[in-house]
């Protein structure tokens, strides 16, 4: 009994020491006090066999429990948050079916990740790799715009041809609106209100409560001429616009994006003839009408090669690390033998 109590106390001290180090170094704090004696009791039961021989196992077991427990707690917290979000969505104007599917798909994604981890670490690695590839290949209007602006030459408005075009200039004519937040006159705005909720971790979560968009057709002008842009809130995509106004009052956050007359913009859309006049609109096959600040695009294009090189480096490092971790080896008499044919990642080659 005395030995058990001694082992129990030592395990408690060891676990708390690890927890304290993690908390002070990386801000780790999600360990419930009740879990310390629980984990210590489990470790102490396994400790009788060979106290000194099992010290390493006690240490590793403590680390594993400390990291696994917050995962379980976060899964439970995710379930509660999902249920709460579902109830809020049902009570608001949001579609109940949309809220239901978001909850089902979110829960299914978490379940698949957990199941793949317990089936095989390689399955989890493969799943995460597929998710990464999917995120890179996913087509959005913003991605299409940024891709096309790198390969399509900028045309002078006076000499644009029919089809997908890229033009640059300032907005000179169009219906003006007064923005709801800053009360500024502009040629279009997107306005959002979010409910702000702070969870037990101190992190803020935002849920949309109201949105408003006002955009009408306008005229873009460069040094060679002008052209009408047939834009609507549904067709015109704001590509990475900077927030003009953004502040919080109480539990509500307000955000606003504006189209200004004195700003240089780049627009990509389809040039068509309408009423004997060339206009820029969203049309098949590309179904793209996007606008972005030229200042943002200059910065984005400057760092694009660095982003590409970083992505290649990260992918190469991940493949190399996976290869190193999965290749069996044997070290004997100062000789290292690598059985690369036994690697799960390379077996299919042989």
UniProtKB/TrEMBL annotation:
<feature type="transmembrane region" description="Helical">
    <location>
        <begin position="104"/>
        <end position="133"/>
    </location>
</feature>
<keyword id="KW-0812">Transmembrane</keyword>
<keyword id="KW-1133">Transmembrane helix</keyword>
<keyword id="KW-0472">Membrane</keyword>
<feature type="transmembrane region" description="Helical">
    <location>
        <begin position="310"/>
        <end position="329"/>
    </location>
</feature>
<feature type="transmembrane region" description="Helical">
    <location>
        <begin position="28"/>
        <end position="48"/>
    </location>
</feature>
<feature type="transmembrane region" description="Helical">
    <location>
        <begin position="5"/>
        <end position="22"/>
    </location>
</feature>
<protein>
    <recommendedName>
        <fullName>RING-type E3 ubiquitin transferase</fullName>
    </recommendedName>
</protein>
<feature type="transmembrane region" description="Helical">
    <location>
        <begin position="55"/>
        <end position="76"/>
    </location>
</feature>
């Amino acid at each position: 009994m005395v030995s058990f109590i001694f082992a129990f106390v030592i395990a408690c001290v060891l676990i708390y020491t690890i927890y304290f180090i993690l908390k002070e170094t990386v801000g780790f704090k999600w360990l419930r006090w009740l879990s310390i004696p629980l984990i210590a009791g489990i470790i102490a039961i396994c400790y009788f066999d060979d106290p000194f021989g099992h010290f390493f196992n006690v240490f590793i077991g403590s680390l594993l429990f400390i990291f696994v427990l917050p995962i379980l707690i976060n899964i439970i917290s995710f379930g509660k948050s999902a249920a709460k979000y579902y109830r809020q969505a049902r009570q608001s104007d949001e579609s109940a079916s949309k809220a239901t599917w978001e909850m089902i798909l979110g829960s299914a994604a978490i379940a698949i990740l957990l199941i793949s981890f317990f089936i095989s670490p390689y399955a989890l690695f493969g799943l995460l790799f597929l998710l990464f590839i999917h995120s890179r290949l996913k087509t959005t209007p913003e991605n299409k715009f940024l891709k096309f602006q790198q390969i399509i030459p900028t045309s002078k408005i006076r000499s644009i041809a029919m089809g997908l075009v890229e033009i640059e200039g300032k907005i000179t004519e169009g219906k003006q609106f007064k923005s709801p937040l800053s009360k500024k006159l502009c040629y279009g705005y997107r306005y959002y209100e979010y409910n702000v909720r702070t969870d037990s971790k101190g992190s803020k979560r935002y849920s949309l409560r109201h949105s408003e968009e006002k955009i009408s057709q306008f005229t873009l002008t460069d040094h060679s001429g002008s052209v009408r842009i047939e834009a609507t809130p549904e067709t015109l995509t704001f590509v990475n616009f900077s927030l003009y106004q953004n502040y919080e009052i109480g539990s509500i956050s307000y955000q606003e994006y504006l189209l200004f007359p004195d700003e240089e913009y780049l627009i990509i859309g389809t040039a068509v003839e309408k009423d004997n006049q060339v206009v820029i609109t969203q049309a098949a096959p590309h179904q793209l009408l996007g606008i972005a600040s030229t200042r943002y695009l200059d910065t984005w294009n400057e760092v694009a090669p660095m982003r590409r090189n970083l992505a290649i480096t990260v992918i190469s490092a991940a493949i190399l690390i996976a290869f190193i971790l999965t290749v069996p080896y044997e070290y004997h008499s100062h000789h290292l033998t690598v059985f690369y044919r036994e690697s799960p990642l390379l077996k299919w080659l042989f």
